[in-house]
Design goal:
The complex is a heterotrimer of chains A (305), B (358) and C (363). Chain A has 305 residues and is mainly α. Chain A has twelve helices and no strands. In chain A, α10 (221-231) crosses α11 (236-259) and α10 runs parallel beside α12 (265-286). Chain B has 358 residues and is α/β, with parallel strands linked by helices. In chain B, 41% of the residues lie in helices and 18% in strands. In chain B, α5 (132-146) runs parallel beside α6 (161-177) and α7 packs parallel to α8. In chain C, 69% of the residues lie in helices and 3% in strands. Chain C has 13 helices and two strands. In chain C, strands 1-2 form a two-stranded antiparallel ribbon. Chain C is globular and about 75 Å long. The relative contact order of chain C is 0.21. Classes of the chains: A mainly alpha (305), B alpha/beta (358), C mainly alpha (363). At the A-C interface, α3, α4, α10 and α12 of A face β1, α5, α6, α11 and α13 of C.
């Protein structure tokens, strides 16, 4: 039983950065913007988050640094893709190149330093409950934050008028504009939210996961977050499932090796991506008239005046 | 505003040309790195070696490096760029640079090349590597002594001979202390991904391992072991900062002495193509201080280190028994020969796992 | 009062010519500031990035070698993008092409197979790349699944597939377990054009592809169809053009070109299969396609230009000890400027006053 608990804890720890970054990207994409620069925003968030925590000694301030850095990066994207109507795919890729370079420059002075990682919650009695105690009541703030975020996003998208408008911008920006909604402003906020989440997800890595900064430490997690958004077919509930499923496959693959199960690890690693393609096809097929993706995803919008 | 900037530019131009002039007489030495110099592991240690070189011979040489050079189509160009920039001795510091280095070496017979961890050579291309398995043997002794659960956790990068021989050396040693010792092996399939290395360390600890050994580059596993109150060995670099109460020792890649020796040979005109595969006796690597262990264990480790250094102890002393229970052919007389170790592609008896790709 | 973007009634040819110059001027100004902050001589840095690589034959060759795969992939992608089909999985098609063609090289290794090997490899690579690209295209046409995302997912699958092959069944038996195949035989290698250099036949093939595409787009009905479907989908429907068919066609062509590029890269500069045969060519090519404004000649120039920044970045690292991270930042900024300035070809800035905006809700 202890092993089960330990595996669940490891899965949560591995899934949290994916979930946070993907939550942000989900909102961005729901507003009709495809920002492929998640990896770039994350790595800058990681470097700035570590710098903030190291300089101030506070994990909280470090996380704020990460959020601000991610948001700043996303504003560059917004300026280009929304303000200047540049192609979003190209802009996102350029943002990743920039982010990797910037994070290296920012982080260069902090390589080899270490900090005290984010502490885990401890409530006497509750945290000690076998099996579920630590999973439910013994996590660090980032984990709870990720859950709160995705619930908040679900509530926002489906239970508020603002969420409805945001989705409208993503599905048909021409109609949304015709109805008088400021499409570009709404999209800018959505992009900024995506950047903030990516920055926070990046900051999680050096602040809670492995408490030091090394260039390139995001190691492709931003791209996985992008995949998860698709896997979830842009639904917050499915995103949670997808993120934890992905984390579980990663962790179980390691455990399977420890147990001596001989499946090629590449096959296990490829499963989530193949599953994403299949899920996407099945979901799209289930609906008449096309995909579940926001209809205006990735398209340029310049209001007619 | 414009004037100061222009003045600055002019000043820098001047400074640049002055240094270029004085550099003309200096020997230029180039380095190709796989990772960023701040990776805290493999590339970091090579760069420390380069810095030691500069400190020792800085008045006679000038060093240049290219970092983050992928082991693909760009490597050959990067190496050739260094040649064309006037570097006369070039160190290419990753296995994947082997064929590109060889190609460039054949093209520029007057430039000397040193390739780390490979096996192809040329009259102007040396290879160099270290017998890290010797260090792994010492670690195996310590691990078996320190483990309470009798289960060691081993994070591998890729199942290449260097890593496999490390696992075998560890287990040969550990079995001399505790014949029933077990090892759990997880392949991270990466040299460097702190998150994944941390996850692998967690999985190993959760499966009962209480001493963690790694053949990946980041201090993440050390960090996790420290959090969980377990013990661990560092890799490549000194990692005690990440586990002051955790690190038992670490195999330190100390390239400095070798780089200094080879550059001195180049300066003296006595450089020739060699295969340097140095062990503890030749200072190709060193053991970090033995910490967090009782004195008797420390003594065992120190004795073993002394014996290996003196050539009295060989980790792969015959008979070496394979997983199938059959003895491995003993090509080196009393022990396995270098070729068998360099190409090691089997697990020894007592490892309950299957070597990937076998 | 605010500044907004407005679509021009027709594309501005003046800006189209001037825009790269503005972008370069802006980049130079930014670099002067950036390098002054870093304490590096900005003029020397500019020289290292842009001038030095152009001054000798060796570097020019290297620029061509680096640009070859970028241009080939970007040309295929541009056809997709013109037809409004969003293939961003060229990286995967590149890898699958190399794997498929590499299969012939691996299987004929050490046999006395004749001169047919290389052509067969190239053909198979193109076919495999096309087939791999057809997966997202068919998912799009048949099921409406977003091709942007499925094509991206298949990149990872291709990477892992290659990884499995070179670590498992195709591993060089004499390679000490390292994850590469044995070096390809000479008959399975792309011939070099200049003795002692690295310029290979692939660069010529890339030029032919550029020329063929320019003709296709400018002088054939199919090319016209592609452009119309992308630019004016409604008009295309009235004209009886089949958009779905074009998605399939352009995906197949771009996949074939990516696969071919992958094979040429592996059978040329690399010489064997290994993980990491592509330093992100498939993604960089997307940037090249847009830098080149989806125009074949533009893509050729953009590919060469981007290759120049890679070679220049190395020169800067060697001669001025400018860290690679600075080169990355510089590339990012440069791309932003070029893309932003190009935006002005289709759009212009206009000052508007808030009270003149459409009143909310009244349409």
């Amino acid at each position: 039983m202890e092993l089960v608990e330990a595996i669940i804890l490891a899965v949560l720890a591995a899934s949290t950065p994916l979930l946070i970054a993907a939550t942000g990207e989900l909102v961005t994409e729901r507003a009709g913007v495809l920002n492929l620069g998640v990896e770039g925003m994350m790595i800058v968030g990681a470097a700035c988050g570590f710098a903030g925590a190291w300089l101030t000694g506070s994990i909280f301030i470090g996380a704020l640094f990460g959020i601000v850095a991610g948001t700043a990066m996303s504003l560059i994207f917004a300026l280009m893709a929304l303000g200047l109507a540049v192609n979003q795919v190209a802009t996102g890729l350029a943002l990743t190149i920039l982010g990797i370079g910037l994070s290296g420059l920012i982080g260069a002075g902090f390589v080899g330093e270490r900090i005290k990682p984010a502490v885990d919650l401890y409530i006497p009695g509750l945290t000690d409950i076998p099996l579920v105690g630590r999973v439910l009541f013994g996590e660090n703030a980032f984990v709870y934050c990720s859950i709160a975020l995705i619930i908040g996003v679900w509530w926002f998208l489906y239970r508020t008028r603002a969420g409805l408008i945001l989705r409208a911008c993503g599905d048909n920006h021409v109609s949304a504009h015709a109805l008088g909604y400021p499409v570009l402003r709404i999209r800018t906020f959505a992009v900024m939210f995506g950047g903030a989440c990516a920055g926070l997800a990046g900051a999680y890595l050096p602040l809670a996961y492995t408490p030091f900064f090394i260039p390139g430490m995001t190691a492709g997690r931003g791209w996985i977050a992008l995949a998860l958004v698709v896997f979830s077919s842009w639904r917050p509930g499915r995103l949670v499932v997808g993120a934890y499923l992905f984390g579980a496959v990663t962790i179980l693959q390691l455990h399977a090796q420890g147990w001596g199960v001989g499946i090629p690890s590449q096959f296990m690693s490829a499963l989530p991506y193949l599953a994403t393609v299949i899920v996407l096809v099945l979901l799209s097929r289930a609906r008449t008239g096309g995909s579940t993706a926001p209809a205006a995803l990735g398209t340029v919008f310049v209001p007619d005046r | 505003m414009r004037k100061p900037l222009l003045a600055l530019a002019a000043g820098l131009l001047l400074a640049g040309s002055v240094s270029a002039a004085s550099a003309a007489e200096k020997l230029k030495v180039g380095f190709i790195y796989l990772g960023p110099i701040g990776d805290l592991g493999w590339t970091y240690q090579h760069d420390l070696g380069r810095q030691a070189l500069v400190k020792e011979l800085g008045d006679q040489i000038e060093t240049t490096y290219l970092e983050n050079v992928p082991e693909g189509p760009d490597a050959e160009r990067s190496i050739e760029q260094l040649v064309r920039a006037g570097n006369k001795l070039i160190f290419t510091t990753s296995f994947g640079y082997m064929d590109p280095t060889l190609k460039v070496a054949k093209k520029y017979p007057n430039v000397h090349f040193e390739h780390a961890t490979g096996y192809k050579r040329n009259p102007n291309m040396s290879t160099y590597s270290a017998k890290w398995y010797q260090g792994r043997y010492i670690q195996g002794l310590i691990a078996a002594k320190m483990s309470k659960s009798g289960v060691l956790g081993y994070i591998g990068s890729f199942p290449i001979p260097e890593v496999v021989s490390g696992i075998n050396a560890t287990m040969v040693a550990a079995q001399t202390i505790n014949p029933n010792i077990k090892v759990k092996i997880i392949w991270a399939n990466t040299w460097f991904d702190p998150g994944k290395e941390a996850d692998a360390a967690k999985a190993l600890i959760d499966q009962g391992a209480d001493v963690i050994m790694q053949h990946t580059d980041s201090p993440a596993a050390m960090q996790i072991a420290s959090e969980r109150g377990k013990l661990a060995f560092g890799q490549d670099s000194e990692m005690i900062k990440f586990g002051p109460k955790t690190q038992l020792t670490s195999i330190l890649d100390t390239w400095g002495p070798y780089y200094i020796e080879r550059v001195k040979a180049e300066l003296a005109g006595t450089w020739k193509s060699e295969d340097s595969w140095g062990g503890l006796d030749s200072h190709m690597f060193a053991m970090a201080p033995y910490t967090n262990m009782p004195d008797d264990v420390k003594k065992i480790a120190e004795d073993a280190q002394a014996a290996i250094t003196a050539g009295k102890l060989h980790p792969f002393k015959c008979p070496v028994v394979g997983q199938d229970g059959k003895e491995i052919e003993c090509k080196g007389g009393a022990n396995l020969d270098d070729g068998q170790i360099l190409g090691m592609n089997f697990y020894i008896k007592g490892i309950d796992d299957k070597l990937p790709g076998k | 009062m605010q500044l907004v973007l407005e679509k021009r009634t027709e594309r501005s040819n003046t800006i189209a010519l001037v825009s790269p110059l503005i972008a370069i001027a802006l980049t130079i100004v930014t670099m002067l500031i950036l390098f002054a902050i870093l304490g590096k001589n900005p003029l020397l840095a500019l020289h290292a990035y842009f001038i030095a690589p152009l001054t000798d034959g060796y570097s020019l060759q290297e620029i061509a070698v680096k640009a070859t795969p970028l241009v080939m992939i970007a040309i295929g992608l541009s056809l997709c993008y013109l037809a409004n089909a969003w293939n961003i999985g060229a990286e995967g098609q590149f890898l699958i092409g190399a794997v498929a063609g590499g299969w012939i090289a691996v299987k004929t290794q050490g046999t006395d197979a004749g001169a047919w090997v290389l052509p067969a490899m190239l053909v198979l690579a193109a076919a495999a790349g096309a087939l791999y690209a057809l997966i997202p295209a068919i998912c799009k046409v048949k099921f409406g699944a977003s091709e942007i995302l499925t094509s991206l997912m298949l990149v990872y699958v291709a990477e892992l597939f290659l990884d499995y092959l070179v670590r498992g069944p195709w591993r060089d038996p004499h390679g000490f377990n390292f994850p590469t195949t044995a070096e390809f035989d000479p008959v399975a290698t792309v011939p070099l054009l200049i003795e002692g250099g690295r310029l290979h036949l692939g660069s010529i093939i890339a030029l032919l592809v550029v020329a063929a595409t320019a003709i296709l787009l400018g002088r054939t009905i199919k090319g016209f169809e592609i452009r119309v479907v992308g630019a004016a989908p409604r008009a295309a429907r009235f004209g009886g053009f089949n958009a779905n068919q074009l998605i399939i066609l352009t995906f197949a062509v771009s996949g074939a070109l990516a696969g071919l590029a992958g094979m040429i890269e592996v059978a040329g500069p690399i010489g064997h299969l290994q993980p990491g045969i592509s330093p992100g060519y498939g993604f960089t090519a997307i940037i090249v396609a847009f830098l080149g404004r989806l125009n074949p000649i533009g893509i050729l120039i953009a590919g060469l230009f981007l290759a120049l920044t890679f070679i220049g970045g190395e020169q800067a690292q060697i001669t001025m000890k400018i860290p690679l991270d600075v080169t990355k930042v510089f590339q990012g900024i440069l791309l932003f400027y070029v893309l932003a300035c190009d935006s002005l070809i289709l759009y212009r800035f206009k000052l508007v006053f808030p009270n003149r905006q459409v009143a909310r809700g009244t349409g």
